[in-house]
Amino acid sequence: MSPTTDRGAPAKRRGRPVAGTGEATRRRVLDAARQEFAERGYAAATMRSIASAAGVTPMSLYNYARSKAALFSAVWDDSLEQIYRDYDATLVGRGSLVEELDAVIDRSRGLLLEAPEHVHLVLRILLDRTHPELVGADLQPPSAVEFYTRLVERGVSRGDIAPDDRGHLITWLVTLQWGMTTVAAFDAASLDFVAETAKWAVRAQLQRPRKREADCRQRSWEREPGRSSGAPSSGREPAGGVREALISAAEQLIAERGLDAVSLREINAAARATNASAIQYHFGGRDGLIRALLEKRQPHIDQRRHEMLDAYEARTEKDLRSLAAALVEPLAAELTEEGGQGYLQLVSDLLNSPDVTFDAEALGDPTSSLVRWHALALPMMSPEAAQLHRRFNSLRFAVSELARRARTGRRDHRLFTSQLTDLVLAMLIAPVSEETGRLMRR
Q1: How far apart are CA 330 and CA 344, in angstroms?
Q2: Which residue, 207, 239, 254, sits at the end of a domain?
Q3: DSSP string for 67-85
Q4: Taking the model in full, what pTM does it have?
Q5: Which residue of 11, 58, 123, 370 shows the fewest CB atoms closer than 10 Å?
Q6: Final residue in a domain of this structure, among 207, 229, 255
Q7: What is the pLDDT of residues 210-256, one digit of tens each?
Q8: How far apart are CA 400 and CA 406, in angstroms?
Q9: What is the distance between the alpha carbons of residues 50 and 32, in angstroms, rounded to a whole number?
Q10: Strand partners, 4
């Protein structure tokens, strides 16, 4: 028999709540957490109250976030994902940047009125981000920057906006989004007027005659004191200066802490870039920045290695240690180069990540010195050793050791480099043991 209450109705069963589907439960958790954080703030919200509202046990919340701070960040990311997915749908069929921005501003106004929990959460982000548990949390809105970057880039490709103006427009649009959200929280009645004002500003900027703009820039240049010839000045920092500053800052931070411990926001701050979306603007995001860091140094490393491989192939008798040195020494030279320590740490982190992509990319380039070294090293190895990826393991070992050496601060690396070359040679030519061979044949 089922237990009953005094009135004869079935009693609520104690214990674990009835489970739903994984995605349905995750949605309940995120919605309940959003409501709790929005209404009570980060400090007052508890995992127990969130679990109760979601219909799950407090312990089961940790299946979705490792801590309250992680859940707070997850809720923020989920709100942004919902908002910008809605914006993407709004843009379908729009033919110009002005039309797209009009549609986004109108939809933004609608969402702010229809979903007040998102508005309240934004205010909590602003108020609670200094909480000790949230210090260091990445609460920047990457979805906003990525969305407006795609939107503006389409405008550039259509000729709706000059390429030099896109960074300013992206920053203005992200700032506008925050401003409209704040207005919705404190003075929702004026939101219609704010949205119309925003559309007026868009038109004033994007639909002004291009000739008048060019004339104004020319007159501004002519009035600049002490300038009598040369190209007009835009009054902005050259794009190359910001880009190089970002690369230098990334190299420094990665050298100190490793790739995974450095956020894009920290790189932006270290480079003193005034545009919050500078990395997105110059590199298209994290992957683009990593490619730029690799491409900055790879040509010099390739050149040094090709020269050593030329000398190796020119010899009548092949010196196998010279081939090992051709792998190690061009990389070891980065120990004394400015920014080279960051490069070594970056490559080490990439090669030691669970999803290694760097080696495959390098070996896909027929001009890469690694392709050539890879081919020359094969004859010196047994088929079993080649099958065990000794060449890749040698590269990963060498780079990891060089990255570790870079952190020691020592200046004389001759003995270290020679010993590392010996170890790489040993890895390449060491015979496969009987036990390893037996396991390979299983």
Answers
A1: 11
A2: 207
A3: SHHHHHHHHHHHHHHHHHH
A4: 0.49
A5: 11
A6: 207
A7: 444 444 444 433 333 443 434 333 334 444 588 889 999 999 999 99
A8: 10
A9: 6
A10: 10
> Given the structure tokens 């939107």, which residue do they identify?
151
Tokens encoding 358? 């760097």
Q: What is the pLDDT of residue 285?
A: 82
Residue 105 has what pLDDT? 86
Residue 208, Cβ neighbours under 10 Å: how many?
A: 11
Query: Do 180 and 299 belong together in one domain?
Result: no
Locus of tokens 């960074």:
167
What is the CATH number for 198?
Answer: 1.10.357.10
Q: How far separated are the first and last CA of the chain, in Å rounded?
A: 58
Residue with tokens 């925003």: 198
Angle (CA) 386 392 394, round 5°: 95
Is-contact 31 20, C-beta < 8 A? Answer: no
Give the closest residue to 170 by CA, choosing from 120, 97, 267, 237.
97
**Beta carbons of 98 and 202 less than 8 angstroms apart:** yes
3-class DSSP state for residue 4?
strand
Q: Which two tokens stand for residue 429?
A: 């030519």
Give the separation between CA 396 and CA 20, rounded to whole angstroms.
Answer: 45
Query: DSSP label at 135?
Result: T
Instruction: For residue 302, give its domain range.
Output: 292-441
Q: Tally the C-alpha atoms within 13 A of residue 184's C-alpha that lie toward its C-beta.
A: 23
